[in-house]
């Protein structure tokens, strides 16, 4: 019943038509896959000081999908940083990660964070 009410709310109050709603959800799914691909590439590369680059790249790729992709990138990034902060990872590192996340979502070039020598595959 709650999802039905949320959909009715979007249609009536927010003026979101079904086509835009489905487009948003499609973009969110694609953005989630972009984030997963960046995470997988980071694990595969296992390259020193590349963390910020992959944060920025995942957010950049997801945000290029549209509003749904940008939303997914923000939710995933915020959840990841929240979990890491909760488990005791440093606040300064978390702030730096969030800076890279915002950099990528804003459409700025993620290569700003690219470490020297990282293979061109990434």
TrEMBL record:
The keyword Signal applies. Residues 1-18 form the signal peptide. Keywords: Acute phase, HDL, Signal. SMART domains: SAA (SM00197). Residues 100-122 are annotated as: Disordered. InterPro entries: Serum_amyloid_A, Synovial_Prolif_Regulator. Major acute phase reactant. Apolipoprotein of the HDL complex. Belongs to the SAA family. This is Serum amyloid A protein. It comes from Mesocricetus auratus (Golden hamster). The gene is LOC101833293.
């Amino acid at each position: 019943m709650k999802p039905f009410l949320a959909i009715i709310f979007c249609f009536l109050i927010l003026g979101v038509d079904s086509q835009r709603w489905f487009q948003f959800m499609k973009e969110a799914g694609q953005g989630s896959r972009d984030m997963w691909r960046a995470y997988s590439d980071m694990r595969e590369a296992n390259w020193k000081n590349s963390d910020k680059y992959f944060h920025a790249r995942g957010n950049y790729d997801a945000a290029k999908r549209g509003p749904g992709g940008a939303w997914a990138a923000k939710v995933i990034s915020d959840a990841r940083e929240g979990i890491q902060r909760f488990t005791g990872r440093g606040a300064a590192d978390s702030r730096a990660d969030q800076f890279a996340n915002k950099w990528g979502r804003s459409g700025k070039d993620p290569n700003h964070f690219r470490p020297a020598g990282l293979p061109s595959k990434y």
